[in-house]
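Q: Got a minute? One more chain.
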Amino acid sequence: MNKKIISIIPIIFFAGCAGSVNYTKPITTAKKENSIIVNKPVDVVWKNAVPELGKQFFVINNLDKSSGLINISYTGDPEKYIDCGQIRTSVTNLQGTRNYNFPASRANQYYEIMNINAGGLYQIRRTMSLDGRMNLIFEDLNNGQTRVTANTKYVVTKTFTAQHTGNNRSSSSVDTINFNSGGSANFPADRNGEFSTCTPTGQFEKDVLSIIK
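A: Always. Here it is, folded:
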């Protein structure tokens, strides 16, 4: 297990104000399984899988029984399905001290940062969204068993808006990254120095395969 903490914005003291932002990268875990073997013929597994998948909150985009392919998608809250590490911020001024600690994959998060070099105190609104598209491959093992493999492409979009508390000036950025099952990708650093690495938790594949199994 490899845990690394990176300080993005050092603690700053100026006219009674202080602030810090720290980012912890996702914890490295063992390779996650993305296939199962079902002790039933492929025709039976396919016949049962299609209506069960249709009952869930996933969207079935394409079915091709001849090639054993089902393509489904999920759009929404990314926190369950991807790990982007942890963000911790602290701000101290005349109004007191405020601490924020949250997963970087959280769908909607408000917090503050103190950045003297950039003009002082900023209110941050940060949103994350996930579009996951999964290919399910059904393979006949010729012994009354079926292997089902799930391969996912994750597309993650981060919207970052910073508003200065003194003059109401604001700036925003929108960045998108993508990676596949077992992979990862990095968001670029924004104007306040915040960046993050995202990787799958394996829960998307687990949830879908458990429906089929």
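A: The two ends are 30 Å apart (CA to CA).
Q: Perfect, thanks.
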